[in-house]
Amino acid sequence: MNIAIIGAGMTGLAAGLRLSQNGNKVTVYEKENYLGGLVSSVRVGKEDLECFYHHIFTNDSDILALIDELGIKDRLNWYKPKNAIYIDNSIYPFTSPLDLLCFKPLSFISRIRMGIMVLSSKFIKDYSAFEIITAKEWIIRNSGLQVWEKIWGPLIKSKFDIDSDSISGTWIWNKLKLRGSSRGKNLNSEMLGYLDGSFNKTVEIMAERIIQSGGNIILNDEVTSIIKNENGSFDIISKDHKANYDKVLFTGSPNLLERLLKGSYDDYKGSLRRIRHKANICAILELSESLSPYYWITIAQDDLPFVLIIEHTNLVGLKEYDSHIVYLSRYLDISDPLYSASDEEIKDKFITGLKKVFPNLNQHIIKNITISRVPFAQPVITLGYSKIIPDIRTPVEGLFMASMSQIYPEDRGLNYAVGLGRKAANEIMGII
After folding, report:
1. Do 286 and 368 meet the contact criterion of CB atoms below 8 Å apart?
2. What CATH number is given to the structural domain containing 246?
3. Does pTM surpass 0.70?
4. Residues 29, 102: one domain?
5. I need a labelling partner for 94 at 20 to 30 A (CA). Which of 165, 216, 252, 423 fits?
């Protein structure tokens, strides 16, 4: 088959690799002038670094299988993270169950209840009960009001802002399950994986193999229309091209597909509009000194402009970055004025917030700041979300969709992007 794939992120390229390996001719369209989507990278020192932070877990079978298949398993290293939480204007260690037991912002009873809730989530397999209860209701019921108000309420608000009270219990259950499962039998030892040269290396090799199989990758060429012809084929019209294909795989947000798909598909387009997303702003700080001993600092109060402080080099080491690397991340509605603010305005707000967490921060240690932003970073997981998820196989025969909104009940991540891409490829080829 002659197949068009719209989007050269991890999902699109994973699907393209599988399709091309099975004798199909693949053409991948990408509106940006680079590969990778959320896995795209910038050069820092002598190393590539993702614009948006990434790591993988020990049970991420799909991305691990891909790394093995691409012959770069020797680049993958495993690290033991040291995490913390910023709450009540103080930083507390927050890596192990012992840290939770010693966590003074919560009463002893609340610490115990929260620990039981986290531990038990690992063993819950059927998530249907979580679909009809909000995360707020479930957390209060299982851990008490203090745990919600001090910990989870601020965290979920920082992720979903104006939608935080309507987020499904499924989302928080899956977060707890994922982290618990990554620890295996040793609750005190979570291991995180990172690929030398960044995870963008997987993207580069997949693209090379698609081209070697006779495929084509077109960068800096935004698709503007998807048109279904009477003979069943599709015309793809982009900024610079018009071409005909047997089948099409769209890997962007459902909202974008609704705009690109031409024709009278009102019911389907209406269903796509029901999926909402949060945007993300991510800053990379290159520092001459380390900020803290922690890899991951979760922000559990709502008076800061970012929700995470991730000191990447505290996990993987300095390598050849020639700097200590810190990510600052903020989720928000695309309508929020901060999203459309200039890079300089965002930098000023982020540095001001960082000085609140680290009052002794000397601004002279900041060598460089890179700002990245993406409009569709996190699907809004509301009650009954499973009933509104679009299928990979759309009602338009021959048109398929694979986006992060469809990996439910799992959440975003490299592993699920790869798995979804392979699943979409199998759907296109009729492989069950």
Report:
1. yes
2. 3.50.50.60
3. yes
4. no
5. 165
